[in-house]
Amino acid sequence: MGIIAKSDLDTDWKDASNCLGVDPDLFFPERGASTREAKEVCRGCEVREDCLEYALQNGEKFGIWGGMSERERRRVRRQRALERQAAIRVVEADAEAV
Question: What is the domain extent for residue 39?
Fold first, then answer.
């Protein structure tokens, strides 16, 4: 029996997404093509954060997810990694002080 990741199960948010029923090609534009229209669909979507988290947790490399391109998601992942490293350093420093 395999392990099922939490992110694999928590996809009920998709049923409430603004993009439900929209042509998926809109969210996977050709290199250099505009992402504006796809991002406009995401704007104001009540599940935008869920969509973005899904993409971040599952390493989605292509397309617009949660209103962000892969380049924008890479920046979010990088920032989160830096924040985790900083938190680890604080914990380690506190442990050494004890």
Answer: 11-97
